[in-house]
Hints:
mainly alpha
Amino acid sequence: MTPTTASALGQAILAIHLAVIAFNVLGLAAIPLGAAMGWRWVRVRWWRALHVASWSLVAIQALLGRACFLTLWQDQLTGAGAAEPPLIERWVNSVIYWPLPIWVFAAAYIALFAAVVALWWAAPPKRSR
């Protein structure tokens, strides 16, 4: 694989990672807000199941003390800092990757997963017809 191809794949994985993070975080805010406001889409069962599944994957990786597989793939493809990345990539990386110990992320991810599970009961999804 050429360096240009690897870099492009690394950037694509970064974009996917950002989308997953946005889905997870925005879902945490949208579910209780939407339940209070009567938004029906926050009770769509497949969407809620996907949200719980995504958070469970994050929590399992955290419990295992592992970095996200998307992070690992991106690092492998971009050479983990072999060259100065473009400005937007640097900005997105600074938003996603914080210089904190892994145990901080593990505690946060497990607590947030617990919140997602609690939301399943506090604002339950509707059964499909």
